[in-house]
Structures are given as C-alpha cells and as structure tokens.
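My hope is that you will study the protein record below before we discuss the fold together.
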Amino acid sequence: TLGSTPKAHDIFEGQICENGHKNGFGTEFWLPQQGGKKSPRIKYKGQYLQNERSGYGTQYTLSGKTLYFGSWKKNKLDGSGSMNFPESDVLLYQGDFSDNQFSGDGVSFY
C-alpha cells in the first residue's frame, strides 16, 4: 500500500543516526506483507525524520515507474503531491493529500 510502513526491509542506503533511526536522505527497498501475501517490491527515495518518511520523497515500482512524488509526514502522503495510477484509467492526480487521502484541491488527468 502506498504510504504504508514497510514490514520487512531488504536494503536501506542513507543516513542513520546513532540510535539506528533513518534520518536525512535515503533510499529504501522493501517487500511488504499484505494479507499474508508478499506484494511487489517498491522503492522509496527521499527524506526521513526519526525513522519515518517525512519531507519530500518519491515512491517507485522497481521497474522505475513513479507512483507518487511529493510531501510526506510520518510515513503518510501529506501535503502537495502527484500520484500516478499505472493500471487505471486515471493517468495522474495532482493536488493535496492528508493522512494518505486526497484532500482539498486537486486535478485528475485521464
């Protein structure tokens, strides 16, 4: 799920504090568990604060397709951003997000 906390990390490259928390800029690869099944590997590249995606970042599929780029807060889509829907009639949504939901003004492109 986009914006969900990874369950099992494969690789993290980036800044880590003395307490082991991701902090600053980094790239993360993981294989999340969803409903007992392993879903496709996804990649995130961006800012972290106290071990959570916070600030600006981009989430991709491993094949390189951008799923979301924009603002994050506490591992959730929050603020201005753009979301692509690679397997949908909607090509792109640009607008505001709050707590992983569309919020406020936004435009969908078909």
